C-alpha cells in the first residue's frame, strides 16, 4: 500500500522543490547493456530500423518457441515509420511466455509494438488478447485493430514502466482471449529497457495533506508532449528513448496561446546531472504561453484535454523552464487539474531559481467514473491576486501516467471508433482529439479528419468522372481569371438558388459602367484567339484595351451557347459593382448586348497566385512575398465577411481566384458563387454545395449550411498551397497525398511537415514564424466551423507571422485591438 505522509502544505512545497530540482536517486543509474532488450518479433535475424536502432530476433526469449509461428504482414501502410519491427509478427494460438533476465535494481520500460494487418491466414480484427508482465496486467481483451481504428493510427505503441522486481527475471505472457472462438494473439516488437527511478512522492490534488509514493507503482504512459514544440523521436530523447509529441491536438477549443523558443544565447542548464533523465533540452527550450495581452489572458484558461480510462489514479507531470523572465513574482499562475486547484501560485522562476533552469512539478489525481467524464483537464490561468508583473502562464512539457490499481491492473477497455455519420452536428465543445488517445499516441490523421477522408473518396470518384470538363485543374492553359462552373461539384448547376440572380437592374444602378459590344470588339481585335489568356466552363477571357487603347483590361465573355453561369454572371455584377476594396478585384463594367454577357475587369499583370507557386516557369516567390500576398488576400476576404452591410461569403476561395497586380498586390476575384443577404445575427445560410474540390469545407459538404467559416477553411488550403508549393488536389499522387489539406495536417500531426515545405523557401522561413503560420492553418482546417478562427483572427495571425519573419527579436507586443480580433472567437470554443 502506498505510504501516506502527513505533511503541512508548505513543507510539501519546500520538499518537492528540493526533490525536483536536485534529482535524488537511491541507486546510481549505470545499467549494463545486457539489461536491455529490443526484439523484432517473428524475425529470425537481427535487423536495423530506419532510425538506426538494432532489433534482435525474439526466438531465444520464448520459453516454448514451437507454440507460436512467425508471419509477415500482407500489406505495408505508408505511414509506418519503418518496416522493422512492424512487417513481421509472432502469432500465438495459445498462451506463451517470454522470459528476460533483468537487473533487480532498476525500473524498466516495457514497450509493445503492434501493427494491425493481415498475417497470412490471420486477420488482426479477430485478435483479442491479454498481456501480463511481472504479475501486472498490462493489457486485457485488447484489440489492436479496434484501437488503431479509433485512434486512426497505422500502428500502436504501448509504453509501460515496471517497478524493479527483486527476483531478476521478467516474464511477459501473452494470452489469446477465451471469449472468442478464433482468437489469436500477435505482437510485432518488444522493448525492455532499464531506466533510472524517476518517480517519487507527489501531492494528491484535492487532498492538501496527502502524498503518494509513485515510485512503488507500475505505470502506463498515456501522453507525453513537448508543449509548444515538435515531435521528438526516440533517439533524440535524453537517454531514455522516449517519444515526445506535439501538444496542439490536445488544446481545448482555439485557445492556442503562443509558442516560443529559447533564444540561442540562453542556455538551458539542468540543475543537476540526474535531471537530464527527466526530459531532454528540446522539451525545455520550447514553450506555450497565453499571449501578449494581459486583459485577454485574464479571460481564458490555457487548457489541454485528454481522454483517459476511469477508476485509475493518474500522475500528471508538468515541465517548466522560463527563458525570458528571471525574477520571482514576475509571472504567477494557477494550475487546475480536472477543475481542482493543483497549484494556486505557480512561479517558475521561484521554483527553478533562474532563467533557463528546468524544473518540473507533479500531481496525482484519482479519476472515478461517477461524473461520467473520462476526460482529464489540465488548465493554466494567471493569478492576478498576487499582482505579478505579467498576467500570463507557461508550460514546456506534459506527461500523464496511469498507475496500477489494487488488482495490479493497468488495462482499460478498447476505445470505441467514431462513426463519421454520428458526429454531433452542432458545435460541441471541442475535445481536440475525439478519438481516445490511449497510451503513447502516434500523431496520425485525427479522428476528426475521418470526415475529410470519406469526402476525399467521393471527390476522387467525381474527378475521374468529370475529368474532361475540369479544365481548371487539368488543362495546361491555366487561365488567370476566375473560371466559372469549372471544377465545381456536380448536379448543382441549373437549379442553383444563387442570390442576386433576379437583379439585372443593378447593372444600371451600381458603380458599374456599360460598354457597347462594338467597344469590346474593338478592344479585343474582334475576340481574337491571340488575345485569349484563359478558358473556362463559362467562356473565354481576353486581354483587351478600352478608352482608345490607353487602359489594359481583362474581358471575360460568356460562351453565347452556354446557359451555364447566367446566375453567376449576374451575381458577380451585383456584388462587385457595389464593393470597392484594395484587395478585391475591380469590375470596371459590363456589356449585355445581343445576348452577350461580358465583364470587364482591371488587368492583373502578374496573373494568379497559383501560377507563381507551381507548375509554371515563373521564378519562385520568396517567403516574405508569399506572406504579404496571403495577408492581402485575407484582408479582401475579411472585408467581404465584415465590411459590408451583409456578410458576404465568397464560397470559392482558391489560389486561382487570388490575382496579383503589377505591384504584387493580392486581389480576391470571382464572386460568381458568393452568397449575400445573410444578416449579421444569422449564423448560416442553407444552400446547395458549391465550391472547388480540394478547397471544400467538409462541414459545409455534410450539412449544406454555409457560413463564413467555409471561406476560412478554403483559405487554409490556399495557405498550405503557398507553404508547400503544390496543388490542393493532385490525383496522380498516392492516395493519402492526393488532398493537400489531409496530407499536410497529417504531416503536421506526425511532426514531418518540414519534409513537404516548398524547397524553394524552406531555408528562409523563420522558425517561430513557421510554427505560428502552421498552427494558424491547422486551425483553419478544423473539421468544425466553430473551431476555426474568424478571418479577422487569421489576418492578425498572418501579420504576426510577418512580424516574426522580418524582426524575430523585435518587440512582440501588438496593438490590443488586433489581439482582440484574434481571441474574439476563442470564447466560442
Ligand atoms: C521445436 O520444433 C523443432 C523442429 O520443428 C524441433 O527440432 C524441436 O525439438 C522442437 N522443440 C521443442 C521444445 O519442442
Ligand atoms: C517465468 O516463467 C518461467 C517459465 O514459465 C517459470 O519457470 C518462472 O518461474 C517464471 N518466473 C517468474 C518470476 O514468474
Ligand atoms: C464458439 O464455437 C462454438 C461451437 O462451434 C459455438 O457454440 C459458440 O457459440 C462459439 N462462441 C463464440 C463466442 O463465437
Ligand atoms: C534529432 O537529433 C539530430 C542530431 O542532433 C538532429 O539532426 C535532428 O534534427 C533531430 N531530430 C528532431 C526531429 O529533432
Ligand atoms: C540575445 O541576443 C540578442 C541579440 O544579440 C539580444 O537582443 C538579447 O538581449 C540576448 N538575450 C540575452 C538573454 O542575452
Ligand atoms: C468504476 O468503478 C465503479 C465503482 O467501483 C463501477 O461502478 C464502474 O463500473 C467502474 N467503471 C468502469 C468503467 O470500470
Ligand atoms: C471541468 O470543467 C469543464 C468545463 O467547465 C467541464 O466540461 C468538465 O466536465 C469538467 N471536468 C470535470 C472532471 O469535472
Ligand atoms: C479556469 O479553470 C478553472 C478550473 O476549472 C475555473 O474555475 C475557471 O472559471 C476557469 N477560468 C476561465 C476564465 O475559464
Ligand atoms: C500497485 O502495485 C503495487 C506493487 O508494486 C502495489 O503495492 C500497490 O498496492 C498497487 N496499487 C494500488 C493502488 O493498489
Ligand atoms: C472485449 O472488447 C470488445 C471490443 O471492445 C468488447 O465488445 C467486448 O465486450 C470485450 N469483452 C470482454 C470480455 O470484456
Automatic annotation (TrEMBL):
Signal peptide feature range: 1-24
GO molecular function, a single term: ATP binding
InterPro entries: ANXUR1/2-like (IPR045272), Kinase-like_dom_sf (IPR011009), Malectin-like_Carb-bd_dom (IPR024788), Prot_kinase_dom (IPR000719), Protein_kinase_ATP_BS (IPR017441), Ser-Thr/Tyr_kinase_cat_dom (IPR001245), Ser/Thr_kinase_AS (IPR008271)
Catalytic activity entry: L-threonyl-[protein] + ATP = O-phospho-L-threonyl-[protein] + ADP + H(+); L-seryl-[protein] + ATP = O-phospho-L-seryl-[protein] + ADP + H(+)
Enzyme class name: transferase
Record-level GO cellular component terms: plasma membrane
Domain Protein kinase: 527-801
Localisation per UniProt entry: Cell membrane
Region (Disordered): 487-507
Bias-annotated ranges (Low complexity): 487-506
Pfam families, sorted: Malectin_like, PK_Tyr_Ser-Thr
Binding site for ATP: 556
Main location: membrane
Membrane topology: Single-pass type I membrane protein
PANTHER family: OS03G0124300 PROTEIN-RELATED, OS04G0586500 PROTEIN
Protein name: non-specific serine/threonine protein kinase
Species name: Buddleja alternifolia
